[in-house]
Amino acid sequence: MEYRKLGNTDLELSAITYGAFAIGGTMWGGNEQKDSIASVKASIDHGVTTLDTAPFYGFGLSEEMIGQAIKGYDRSKVQLLSKFGLVWDGSNNGKGEFFFDAGEGGKQIPVYKYASKANVIKEVEESLKRLQTDYIDLLQIHWPDQTTPIAETMEAMELLLQQGKIRAAGVSNYSVDQVKEARQTLNTASNQVGYSMLNRGIEQDVVPYALDHNLGIIVYSPMERGLLTGKYFNDGKLKDNDHRKGYFQQFDLAKVEAFLQAITPLAQDKGATLSQLVLRWTTLQPAISVVLAGSRNAEQAIANAQAMNINLTDADLQFIHKELAKI
């Protein structure tokens, strides 16, 4: 495993970071808690020391399982990344910005973006209890909240830094302009954004800004929620409550399948799976600090960690980019 300094902090994060969205179950067709906890432990045992979660993932369940999974490990050797700002329990009293309705148990639950100072403090206290720890290594706003001044949100994180409840502060899904505004109040460490072979928009502005201003980039959805594993094209069955049934329709699936077929021989030559090849490619892109990879069981977790063992030459990368240009 490779460990990388995050932006302007002293945090050393594993290049492959455990993404804990799917183990929460919500929007992912459920989960098996025993398998999920085993996947977290297997990740840590294979060098993935950084775990990224959020209160919204499973409405608290993901954080609770992370808290259970890390018992017995040296807390100083595990980095916990969490978030705030998505409220689903009505505690915002109608305040904030409506985001979407999340399905759970056959009913729709309204989710709001809400990042007021009071809410930030409240959510962090709840996260600390679920994670069974007294500090979070990196706290991130989950999505921009248009109803709360960015400065107010940053002031809340600055207070938490002073209190020692968080070690570093970051943002998620922020534009460059929003990052600039945030940094007028607090010198944020990172921006967590979506990025993949099929979604490279951040290369236009977020990446250049990060390179010039010592901002870490944490990447989510590098596998496009499983599409780039190739499994969908072999067995495309998804549960009715799996959000990916609709999500995948944004892509030209025929071209994606052709691309995956083109790079499969390269993966085979490296003794790797498509998933591992895609993850390794992502870790090698400019300005990328760490890459989130989810897993539902120990076997998947180990495979994700081993992606870092792949050696991609300049010629390999050029080949991949040539094939990407055809999508």
CATH superfamily: NADP-dependent oxidoreductase domain
Q: How many β-strand runs? A: 13
Order of helices and strands: EEEHEHEEEEHEHEHEHEHHHHEHH
How would you sum up the major sheet?
Answer: 8 strands, parallel, barrel
Q: What is the CATH third-level topology name? A: TIM Barrel
The poorly predicted ranges are none
Strand order of the largest sheet: 3-4-5-9-10-11-12-13
Q: Give the number of helices.
A: 12
Beta percentage is: 15-25%
Overall 3D shape: globular
What is the mean pLDDT? 92
What's the CATH architecture name?
Alpha-Beta Barrel
The level 1 CATH classification is Alpha Beta
- Rg over CA atoms: 19 Å
Characteristic terms for this protein:
single chain, 327 residues, alpha/beta, TIM Barrel, 3-stranded antiparallel beta sheet, 12 helices, 13 strands
Can you describe what's shown?
The structure is a single chain. With about 325 residues, the chain is α/β, with parallel strands linked by helices. The protein has helices at about 35-45, 60-70, 115-130, 150-165, 175-180, 205-215, 230-235, 245, 255-270, 275-285, 300-305, 315-325, and strands spanning about 5, 10-15, 15-20, 50, 80-85, 85, 95-105, 105-115, 135-140, 165-170, 190-195, 215-220, 290-295. The protein has a single domain (about 5-235, about 280-310), classed as Alpha-Beta Barrel (TIM Barrel), CATH 3.20.20. Helix 6 links the parallel strand 11 (about 190-195) and strand 12. Helix 1 crosses helix 2 (about 60-70), helix 2 crosses helix 3 (about 115-130) and helix 9 packs antiparallel against helix 12 (about 315-325). One of its GO terms (cellular component) is cytosol.
